[in-house]
Queue: 2 jobs
Job 1
Amino acid sequence: MKTLTHPNAVRAAALTALVAATLCAMPPARAEQPATDTVAPFSVNARLNFTLNYPAFLRFRVGTTGATVDLITFTVPAASVGNSVPISGTGGDAGGGTAVNIEVAGNNGQVTITPSNSSGGLGLRTATLSDGRISYDQIQTTTNLAQLPAPVLTDAGGTPVQPTLNTAMVTQRIAVWTYSYLNQTIPSAGIYGGTAAARGGRVTYTATMP
Amino acid sequence: MTDSRSRFTLRLMAAAALLGLTASAHAVTVVIGGGAAEIALRVGATAGTISTVTFAPAAATAGTGALVLGTTNAAAGSAQAPNFGTACAANNVRIWARARAPVAATRTATLQVNSSGNLTSGGNSIPFTDFGWVTSAGTEIASANFSGSATQTLMTFQNSNEVSVCLRFQFLNTTIYPSGAYTGQLTFNLAMP
Amino acid sequence: MRALAFLLIIVASQGALSGEKLDDAGSPRSRVDTTVRWLHTNEGLTTPELINAMVATVPNLEFRLDTSRYVGKKARIYLVVPDFMPGLRSPSGLRVEWKTRGAFLAGSALPGTRALVYDGTIKLPSMHEALDLSIYLDARYFERGLRFEPRFEIDVLP
């Protein structure tokens, strides 16, 4: 505030001071006082439960899926009968017809695949009993996956195999089994086996699991 | 000279007196404090109930990659009346989140989920990465699968805001597991600095 | 001459509101602290107004108004809400509602407005009134520590 030196200025100065004092008292210019502040990192949790009921199951596929039963046909030319040169089959759903797709999946322990056939342990025959039999020893099966071996077929049925487990309880294997006729014998001419189960040509693979 | 000075002085004093009257040295003042920020989160049913989503793979398609949709009850997708539109579609889980604060505290809220764990049945386990979801309502969370991260971010938003989505969870079913009743729990976290 | 000019400016601004201010210096409490809370807690706050709504309450806020100059006169007394106040970023972010425990009228007012609380003959040199205040706030415009100073003013009727 400027200091006035005029004699009359004494009173004026006092009034100015009064005004100034009053001015300072209104409105109060106190610094803002914060209320209690409880700021912390904000964090809220919520939970959700999941329940999954996993069934025990076994799935097994030989050849075409569904109810279709594939028919593997070996045709031996007359000039080749008995020359021990294997003949490839036709009619499968893999390998251009020479083979079938195999899938096995299960989750309750070791799977066993057991072959059996409709020949009563005697082998393939024609409609004429006197034609004789072709033994299942002449049907060779090979696999393309060591972990899913192909059972060896015999007249009695064959040797069970056990696909290698993927984990302690789970099997999940896909392979292709290829069939060939070994052609090591000279049977009578005729159509052996076929769709008529009585002629012994129906092979059944049965997969089981604990 | 004297008179004019007196009048001058008088006017000055009157004005000062008036000023003193209007000075609010003793006015009643209400000071409003508080107003802390607030966040809220709900996954599934309200009132702290933990909802359950159930999956039932079929034997014929177990492990084939055929999606298995989860099922849950209506409470998990409920809408709190009266302001909230409609409930989620059947078998959906509602995720609802809110973050608000006074203007000086604008921040971003983040919703994360810990999907690093498993469902278990005895000694067998199915990781949460075998699961995902499809968003049926809301835009803030996109359809996706669980990543297996302990801090998988689902969405972020700035306060003050409220978001709500409906999710249908699904089992990806690409792996064969031993049979059993598997159970597990996911923890969702909404956080704001 | 400089001092006089300064005074005139101040007086002019005080005269911007109509009505004479009633002295409330005799009121029991000069400062009241309260806290704000979120008004709506349910889900579905789908508009910014709903989600940001807050309220602070002050029950039984007593005023003693010096009406000694107006005894015997017909007058109207108003509660005035200031235009601006520290901590309020916009006048649209606040609304005051009050109920009374005496002769004054209940009502509500926005910043920069006044509401009639008494209409009649002034009978006493000092009028006592207690208000239950509800101060509605919008979080988008609220800063912690907001200072609200209600005032009363009087229009003397001819």
Job 2
Amino acid sequence: MSKQLIHVQLLLGEKVFALNGQPIGRLEDIRTEKDRGHFYVSEFLVGSYAMFERLAALKMGRMLLGVFGAKKNEGYRIRWDQIDLSDPHHPRLLCEVDELLPLKREQYPS
Amino acid sequence: MDLVRDCLDKQLEDGNKRRMGRVDGIILELEPDRPPRVAYIELGVKTLMDRMSTRLGNATARLFKRFNVDPEPYRIPWGKLHVGLNKVTADVEAEKTPALEWELWLRKKVIGRIPGA
Amino acid sequence: MKKIVEIALGIVTSVGGFLEIGSITTAAQAGADFSFQLIWAIVLGGICIIFLVEQAGRFAAVSGRTLPDAIRERFGSNYFALLYLVLGLVSLLVLAAEIGGVCIALELATGIGFQWWAVPAALLIWLVIWKGTFGVIEKGVSMLGLVTLCLVVGAIVINPPWSQVVKGALPSLPQHDATHYWFVAVSILGATISPYLYFFYSSGAIEDEWNEGYVGINRVIATGGMTFGSVISIAVLILAAMIFAPQGMKMDHYTQLPQLLTPVFGYWGFWLIVASVGIACLGAAMEITLEIAYLTAQGFGWNWSENQHPSAEARFSAVYTITIILGALLTVTGIDPLKLTIFSMALTAASLPVSIVPFLFLMNDYSYVRVYRNSWFSNAVVIVVITLAFVLAAVAIPLQIFGGG
């Protein structure tokens, strides 16, 4: 069976949609783990926090978001089996939003 | 390791610390019921253009083909890479890869012919 | 002793890129049109560029990476493409203005029209970059640039009303021609806060193999060099204010440049101004050419260094060669160098946000700068400079249209 290839750089910034069709945020990074010499995707990181972390500006970003009255939880961690990437331009959740883990500060080691 | 933060757009060097470009793209391999595997990195102008817009990427590919230049990006298997701090090292020899095709062509056909090069 | 020499050389070379046709022209125009009133714009621009250059140098010394490297790595290829397009275009126009400046100096010296000097000037610039090393370009041309000190001497000898000079260092509202006043202020800021200055500086730090041990030296060089450059710009403004303003003369043609020093030094004043303009613009042209080549090579991850043979980095060499050709082409067409200069300074001001915003992120990125991160004060200054940059970006082009006179 031929394998589907996904370009990470084209996934970057794409809106991720919940089961009800509502966007939950943009895909900002992809976390991987090493297993027996290969790297596998463990989580997809979605939301403003993930973007600020990528820019190494999490502290500044949280402050800015706070100033503009944004919600405290500005991101999600989506496990690899909770997302459907068959259409890379339209990634969709395979579970309810409530089942996702929120992004937290302590998950970003400096 | 976070792919975008730690790998994408980072400087790519060969085993001899020679700069050979940047990681313009990363490719995941999807298989049913298994976590996606990081398979390759990609270098190339078309990859960069695709990031701006698919139309631009396709136009770039057509332009390259018009001049008999292969538009396909150069891929390096993930197994040959080591991701460091703000840098990725590939277990290849840069001058023997398509990454330096333009560099070598310019050196041979243009720059190298100018006195004092 | 070695450190003192290094610092002294560093300060001199920093002046090299600062004083160029843009800063000379805008300062002269400010002095002619508004006497000492716009000294504050040079002071403000000088303070901003000190902080930006110091941070660019610190970043490179500690991280071993240049600004374009880090901008591509942190902000991605699309943001870099925007930066490259904006900076590349603006830098090319400024380069054309600088080549124009060299040609003006040669026209004044020989009487042969400036367009005819475009190709020889471009060839000279290319030859020095092709054959020379970074040290030759940075230090050699900059040492020659010490001739611009004649402008400071001239400004002292002409004995301006120093109380008015000091008063001019404080911001004030225009007494006449408000639109033109603010346009000239914006142009001065565009000439002073030039992105090529801090981008070139960060690449230069890598070329000179700076490391953490240079953080202190960098601070002295950035502060000293940019201050020195600002003082020379102020000297030009003072001369124009003393010579043009009382006669109600406008500075609107490059043939007026010698008049800045001939009243002070007579016959030698002419040759001093010709040498000052020629050498300052030559140095700036080389820096801008290299900056465009560095930006390209670093953004795409190519091999680059002015210290290597051209054939070892063929793409880098090809880029600076093409850049010089494009810059010279604009001068060959006969575009008035003065008008081109004023326009490119306004455009520089309009493009500032794209290159300054990344500072706020990069100078606080532990993976690059580690313990040498910005203090709260430096971050506050960067935020002020970013705010100023956005204001300039919004007003530069409208002012060019309505107040460019």
